[in-house]
Design goal:
The protein is α/β, with parallel strands linked by helices. Helices cover about 55% and strands about 15% of the residues.
Length: about 130
C-alpha cells in the first residue's frame, strides 16, 4: 500500500478528518492528534493488527482497517452524521431553524444510507432535533 494522506472534511467549525495509510499514520498521528482542528482519524492499511497496536493509544483514531466498504465508510458516515448534528445544534442555538433542519436531515441520510448498524440513539436524537425545528 502506498503512503498517502488526505484531509477530507471541513465544516463551519473548521474541523478536519484525516485518512492516512498505516505507515504515514504512525508518523503523523502523534503530531496532529491533539490539535483541536482534528475531529477524527482513519487508518487504512494492509497490516491492521500491527497498526492497531500503536493507534489504540489515540482516541481520535476511529478505525484501523483494510476494507473500506465494511469498516471505513460506515464509521466515516457516523462521524459525518455527528458533525452535522453538532452543526445543526449550533444553528438551533442561533435561531436558524431551517438551516438546522437541513443539517439534521443530512445526518439522518448519512446514517441510513451508509451506516446500517449505527447506534439507534443517534436516530432518536435526530428525530427530537427535527421536532425542535418545527
Amino acid at each position: 500500500m502506498g503512503v498517502g494522506v488526505g484531509i477530507l472534511f471541513s465544516s463551519y467549525i473548521h474541523t478536519h478528518t484525516l485518512i492516512t495509510s498505516g505507515g504515514l499514520g504512525q508518523k503523523i498521528v502523534p503530531e496532529v492528534h491533539d490539535l483541536p482542528q482534528v475531529y477524527a482519524i482513519y487508518i487504512y492499511c494492509a497490516n491492521v493488527k500491527f497498526h492497531e497496536t500503536w493507534a489504540k493509544k489515540f482516541r481520535k483514531v476511529r478505525v484501523v482497517c483494510d476494507n473500506d466498504d465494511l469498516y471505513l465508510l460506515p464509521q466515516f458516515a457516523v462521524d459525518v452524521a455527528q458533525a452535522n448534528i453538532d452543526w445543526g445544534n449550533a444553528l438551533l442555538r442561533q435561531g436558524t431553524r431551517d438551516k438546522a433542519k437541513e443539517k439534521f436531515k443530512l445526518a439522518s441520510d448519512k446514517l441510513n444510507n451508509y451506516a446500517r448498524n449505527h447506534d439507534s440513539a443517534m436516530d432518536a436524537e435526530i428525530k427530537n432535533k427535527l421536532e425542535e425545528c418545527k
